[in-house]
Specification:
Layout (H helix, E strand, L loop, with lengths): L19 H10 L2 E4 L8 E4 L2 H9 L4 E2 L12 H7 L9 H6 L8 H5 L2 H15 L4 E3 H6 L1 H11 L6 H12 L28 H18 L5 H10 L5 H14 L2 H16 L1 H9 L4 H12 L4 E6 L3 E3 L2 E3 L4 E5 H4 L35 H15 L3 E6 L4 E2 L8 E3 L1 E6 L1
Parallel strand pairs: 2-8
Antiparallel strand pairs: 1-2, 3-5, 4-12, 5-8, 6-7, 9-12, 10-11
Helix pairs in contact: 6-8, 6-17, 8-9, 9-10, 10-12, 11-12, 13-15, 13-17, 15-17
Length: 413
Amino acid sequence: MQLTDIDLVDPDTYVGGIPFEWFEWLRHHAPVAWHPEPAPNRGFWSVVRYDDLVRVHMDWDRFSSEKGAVALEELDDEQLRVRQTMLESDPPRHGELRRITSKRLSARGVGRYEDWIREVARDVLDRALPMGEFDFVAEISRELPIRFLCSILSVPQEDAPALIHWGDQMIANQDPDLAAVVVDREDTEAYRLLPFRSPTAYEVWAYADRQRELRLGTPSDDVIGALVLAQSEGTLTEADYHNYFSLLMIAGNETTRHTISSGMLALLSHPEQLRHLQEHPDAIPTATEEILRWATPVMHFRRTATADTELAGVPIKEGDKVVTWYVSANRDETMFPEPNRFDVTRQPNEHVTFGGGGPHFCLGAHLARLETRILFQELLPRLRSIELAGPVSRIRSNFVNGLKRLPVRIHAA
């Protein structure tokens, strides 16, 4: 294999699965390597080893989220200003934005919802399992996260389908089955100031505005209420409010859904691991961490060098894009013995699915862990058997690692 054989940019690369053999080659032969991109992008440094990824994420002063963007798209100053979210901010601004919702998304904050999440999980399974044969993504893995998101946002449960649809159209903006406008196939210049260059943002913002009007009429102690209060106090601008709401809607639904879907596929592909969890349900919390490592629903995040520097002995110039690949770091042989083995008993398991430390460690980590653990605690005892009932379909994306369809055939216990 040669470096020129590897194309991590083309979203078609990932339709058949993550090219783990490419990342393994890069870790051993070119751990910090220049990767060209089609115009108008200029290319980036690809960072694939665990320790290097952690160094980048811990050194936010040298590798900034705010000086560029966190995705591959290169934004001009106007786009950066208008589209900035908590993700595209450095301390101290990042901490200011994070504090708006951090208490509600802390371990304690989400822990008080555990009984309710379990109740919703049982309701979802009670409806889906009697079907016998169905799409696991549509009927189970996307239902629990969105229903809980509606709860913490204090919006009607009947709005869940719209929130799912909008989230899919925005974050899966390279998939013609999901996106309103496919960014690498259509002219999206008219939407350059919108998140993900998606016109769906207008619908999301209109919804956010309606929710704000309700809170202004009747103040409430929920996540949207916290955003409205922050805006009234001057912490958030109108654009900040819209972008924060969009981020919560997507991050609170999409990533957990893809984790659950990939976890179920992993158990289907490793029936001995499924049997172990059914025989030892107390191992499910440990298995949740392996599912998170294995799933890695966000493949990468990008930083921008703020000065001439180096990484792993490679010189990096000020302004260069530096892309850290979670899907590779989570399979790094120096950190995870037999990294390509799915092992629900793996300990320790210091995966970087929620980030490599530093100020940007995932705000929703506690919620994602809780939802994933509860879903499998409720599902696995109900299964007498489960098997694939058709081809698995993946999202066309170089950013999101997710399944569109996972057809299964189930015999309930």
